[in-house]
Amino acid sequence: MCSRQYESRDIDQSAGTRYRPVMATRVESQVRTRRWTRAEYDRLILEGLLDEDEPIELLDGQLVVREPESAGHSAAIWLVQAALRRAFGRGWLVRGPAPVALDPASEPAPDVTVVRGSPRDYARDHPARPVLIVEVARSSVLRDRRLKGGLYARAGVADYWIVNLVDRGLEVYREPVRSPSAPSGWKYARLARLGAGAVASPLARPRARIRVADLLP
Q1: Which is deepest, 74, 83, 127, 163, by most CB within 10 Å?
Q2: pTM
Q3: Category of 172 on φ-ψ map: left (φ > 0), alpha (ψ -120 to 50) or beta
Q4: Per-residue pLDDT reduced to its tens digit, 170-211
Q5: Rounded to an integer, what distance in angstroms lies between the CA atom of residue 29 and that of residue 36?
Q6: How far apart are CA 76 and CA 161, in angstroms?
Q7: Residue 200 has what DSSP assignment?
Q8: Contact between 127 and 172 (Cβ < 8 Å)
Q9: What's the CA gap between 97 and 100, in Å, rounded?
Q10: Helix-, strand-, coil-residue percentages of the chain, each rounded to 5
Q11: DSSP string, 36-70
């Protein structure tokens, strides 16, 4: 709880521009927040209190508005999906943007995820363990690095990529480890920053070679 003192003055119109001091009052305010579970969040959608297409995702119990999609952002998502479909081939599903049942307090909607199987395998519940998650970021770079990266690491996602539209490159995060300084208590121990001329290979498809330039609009 925080307390602040404010002093205000009233204008006495009948006496011209003359100010009359008013006794200072103490204003006390308390901000209260409520954390949501994934089950509660899904129920809000099922009951129509949240629209299925609303740009909101559940991150560690908080309802967060997703980054708006610019033309370049949308183009990058399509480019990433096309590149990953070529790299993974049959038996794999490249989704996105679509929700992931990450943990009891988180249901993010990454721009692209790669999971085993077909669309009908996920008709009853969202996938929980993608082999690769990709976020396309411009204004959300810091949030995708620290907040989302920590949640993905905590959930055991072994391979996390950020297509950085600001620096026009790819950030590859691997090896989740505990970290007391991270918001979620977890982070990735390894980070590789790749320029447009570099090549990346998903952990689940180590022989595939994806040109970073092919992911950038």
Answers
A1: 163
A2: 0.78
A3: beta
A4: 999 999 999 998 888 999 999 999 999 999 999 999 999 999
A5: 23
A6: 13
A7: E
A8: no
A9: 10
A10: 25, 35, 40
A11: --HHHHHHHHHTTSS-TTSSEEEETTEEEEPPP--
CB 170 within 8 A of CB 215: yes
CB of 17 closer than 8 Å to CB of 11? yes
H helices then E strands: how many in the chain? 4, 14
Domain boundaries, the chain: 69-215
Q: CA-CA distances (angstroms) from residue 154 to 60, 150, 157?
A: 11, 6, 8
Alpha helices in 52-147 (DSSP H): 71-88, 141-143
**Residues 144, 165 contacting (CB under 8 angstroms):** no
CATH number of this structure's domain 69-215 = 3.90.1570.10
Closest CA to 137 of 215, 84, 29, 49: 215
Question: In the predicted model, what is the mean pLDDT of residues 87-97?
Answer: 95
Helices (H), 100-179: 141-143, 149-154
Helix (H) / strand (E) element for 2: namely strand 2-6
Convert the pLDDT of each residue in 98-118 to its tens digit. Answer: 999 998 878 899 999 999 999
- Cα angle vertex 85, ends 101, 161, to 5°? 55
Q: Report how far residue 173's alpha carbon sits from residue 6's, in angstroms, rounded to the nearest whole number.
A: 48
DSSP assigned state of 168: T
